[in-house]
Specification:
Largest sheet of chain A: 3 strands, antiparallel
Number of helices of chain A: 10
Number of strands of chain A: 6
Oligomer: heterodimer
Largest interface: A-B, 62 and 54 residues
Structural class of chain B: alpha+beta
Distance between the termini of chain B: 29 Å
Largest sheet of chain B: 4 strands, antiparallel
Helix content of chain B: 40-55%
Radius of gyration of chain A: 20 Å
Shape of chain A: globular
Number of helices of chain B: 8
Number of strands of chain B: 5
Distance between the termini of chain A: 7 Å
Strand content of chain A: 5-15%
Helix content of chain A: 40-55%
């Protein structure tokens, strides 16, 4: 199978995915003889082709997968047609709690409360309900408290490729001040490493 | 007034301290403990005067602050050897504030990322939900912004009040809840000071303020401000501004 053929298949898979398409899922759809193809590289190339062609839709690398999304600049047009837009914006306490969990995971409720200085049980329930966090197990300590961590839905909600994509707390000092003024560019579907990859990786046949 | 408003404790003593630090325009590491302690206690008094249910954490922090303050007044020799061995409580508090502030910054960044992600739609779009039509950027105002605005407002009222000693409890919080509900529905938004425009006396102002807190608790209204420490706006809680948790 040639690269363009594989890309056609990936494009079709992206269209029917309601969640970010994971590489493992994509592999399942391919015939067994083509298991060796570097689907990640192909998806990144496809993403770049979309961006370069300046189409109304983009391929976003998010939540450890890839997803077809509308160009953010077209938001106002899109919302005129469909009123069914996800509007869940988290409250400040929820965001703070989520930030602590994201950076400290796995973390217990008491550890979260030590940082914020207030009870966290209500917020934790909400975050669990929204599937933004999950129970990771129990801590080997007195009372064996539950340990919480973030989910793939968390990555999706904030447009993060993966957890490593979060800026470190030290980096944050500089970023946070400017965050409101200059939106972060995390969700640009362009990947810097894709170009060099495509030349160095031998076609898999 | 027997009406007790139980605010959900979404903000704690550390939020109040950071709020006071921000107001003082000083760095956390340079906070004047004595001054901040006094301000902190004034806010607690105000919350008590309004009969708000104050979380135990606020009182624990008040005790810590007063302990630090009194310790600073003592010469180092006056401390017992054990006390001298202990970590400096001021430094401990500063470390906690710095740590919390860092996570607040992280939360701010997440909020920006969330906003950027929301404008990239995929299919199928989830059912329900209303269109996002945010013409104007509004910041979430905190409980302390609200208390601050309220105490500022009350300062201007006191002198007027001196000659009206006869105060009957003719205004109930329930009535004011109904009135505010109606007003926000009709007008969409209200300015904070507008709320008290027609108020006759302090008791009416307090009833109105408690009604506002009650509506916030019921998530029927949200409070926003156009800028840090700016005028507070009361908005009906439509999907547009809906927040969770």
């Amino acid at each position: 199978m040639t690269d363009p053929e594989a890309k056609r298949i990936l494009e079709a898979l992206l269209l029917i995915s309601d969640k970010p398409l994971l590489l493992d899922q994509a592999k399942e759809a391919f015939d067994s003889d083509f298991q060796g193809m570097d689907l990640r590289r192909l998806l990144m190339e496809l993403s770049q082709e979309y961006a370069a062609a300046n189409r109304g839709i983009r391929i976003l690398e998010v939540a450890e997968g890839f997803q077809l999304v509308t160009d953010p600049n077209l938001f106002r047009y899109v919302t005129r047609l469909t009123h069914r837009v996800k509007t869940v914006r988290l409250s400040r306490p929820a965001l703070e709690t989520l930030a602590i969990i994201a950076y400290r995971q796995p973390v217990t409720r008491v550890e979260i409360e030590q940082v914020r200085g207030v009870d966290a049980s209500g917020v934790l329930d909400t975050l669990l309900k929204f599937n933004l966090i999950q129970v990771m197990g129990r801590k080997e300590a007195v009372g064996r408290p539950l340990l919480y961590g973030t989910t793939r839905e968390f990555l999706d909600h904030f447009g993060l490729k993966n957890l490593e994509n979060l800026p470190s707390l030290e980096e944050l000092k500089g970023i946070a001040g400017a965050a409101a003024a200059a939106p972060v560019q995390e969700q640009e579907p362009i990947n810097e490493s894709a170009g060099s990859n495509s030349q160095s990786t031998a076609p898999a046949d | 007034m027997s009406y007790k408003v139980k605010l959900e404790i979404f903000e704690g003593p550390l939020d109040l301290l950071l709020f006071l630090v921000k107001q003082s325009h000083l760095e956390i590491t340079k906070i004047p403990i004595a001054q901040i302690t006094d301000q902190y206690l004034r806010y607690l008094e105000l919350m008590q005067a309004l009969d708000l249910e104050i979380a135990g954490e606020f009182l624990v922090m008040a005790a810590t602050l007063m302990q630090i303050k009194s310790r600073m007044l003592l010469p180092p020799e006056a401390l017992t050897p054990e006390e001298q061995e202990e970590p400096d409580p001021t430094q401990e508090l500063i470390q906690r504030l710095l740590e919390y502030q860092r996570f607040k910054q992280a939360a701010e960044l997440l909020s920006t990322m969330e906003k950027n992600r929301l404008v990239q739609l995929s299919r199928p779009v989830p059912p329900d939900g209303a269109p996002v039509t945010e013409a104007e950027e509004l910041m979430e105002a905190s409980l302390f912004d609200l208390l601050n605005a309220f105490s500022q407002f009350m300062k201007g009222q006191v002198s007027r009040e001196l000659f009206h000693e006869v105060i009957k409890d003719e205004f109930t919080v329930e009535e004011k809840v109904a009135l505010l509900r109606e007003l926000t529905r009709q007008q969409g938004r209200l300015g904070f000071t507008e709320l008290f425009g027609g108020a006759h006396n302090t008791s009416e102002i307090i009833a109105t303020f408690l009604a506002l807190l009650e509506l916030i608790r019921l998530k029927e209204v949200v409070i926003r401000q156009t800028q840090l420490f700016g005028e507070i706006l009361i908005l009906g809680n439509t999907d547009e501004v809906k927040a969770t948790a």
